[in-house]
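Hey team,

Filing this mostly as a record. A colleague (T.K.) asked me to run one chain through the structure pipeline before their review meeting, and I want the input and output archived in the tracker in case anyone asks later how it was produced. No errors, nothing strange. Just documentation.

Input sequence:
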Amino acid sequence: MKHLTRTFAGACLAATLVAGSATAQANLTAETSSPGNSPHVSIIHLAEAASTAGVAALQVQEGQTLTNSAQNVAEGRTDISAMPLLLGFLMSKGRGPYAALGEEKGAALAGNLRALVPYNAGAYGLMALESEGITSWDDLRGKNVWNGPPRGAALVNARQAIFLAAGLKDGEDYTGHQDNWGQLAGRLVDGSMDAFVVPLTFPSDRVTTMQAAGDVAIVSTPKDTFESEAFRKVFNAPGNVPIELDWSEAGYSGDGVRLISDDTLFRGIGTAFADVVNKDMDFDLAKALVATYIETIPQLKERTPYMKNVNVGVLDPAASGFCGANPLKYHPGAVAAWEEAGYTVPDCAKE
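Output structure:
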């Protein structure tokens, strides 16, 4: 099986709930995004692994707004959630979607969050049908560009990626269009957009969907832009990580998908994620959850090829987005599981 589809995810969830009811030591709630991306796959995989190991039964709610899910975990209403690291930072400052909390309450809630597993949700790239003739970021001038949901970090990063690569501003140099993530699949094939700037995994379900309408070109961030001082500042911002991937590892056969790059590398701004829990989760439970996840990473990567390219289990701060301005730390139980499995957990990411 090449992709973790909605059907498979549903089967995993059903199996988790049935098997878990008989063998699990804990009943937990979890929230994640819509199917088709690494945050969804990671939580579903955790649910299946925990159930199979008899650690816990996870009741998973998918298609959630992770801004709300992260707050639910911080407030103790949900046990586990996928979370972009940027949300932890914004919560800690009482900014953006958490402005209503204020800095004091936001900081207190963010202090309740702890990480289990790090990964990313892909890297921002420009993609368009070959028939559009778009071969560079400069070609977005005057175009209709889908660049994310109406609010949140994804839209900010997409606009930033376009500006840094080509100096173009949304609403002035091109017309940005936003919809909820669930509407993206329709946009990819309905001909209403000239191009898309979105996070891409490798291989990507989004690219596969677009191929139904024709051959696809993917444009990497130019090498000189990626290595510039301005881009380095972007990578110092909470939640952003640099991603470079050789096209030979991207998972495409070469038919119908073309990379446009200065060399053989795709480069882009990556979005750092983690599956998070409340700090009050029992040490042994957190340790057992992470241990079962670690043990089954090979099966995860075999089942869902793009999970090979999202740095699952890569704990290095530069690659994972931890430390620096990011306040999120690993749960002590998670630290124990990673270290017992032979991984090095950075001191700056421990309590």
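Quick notes for T.K.: The radius of gyration is 20 Å. The chain has 14 helices and twelve strands.
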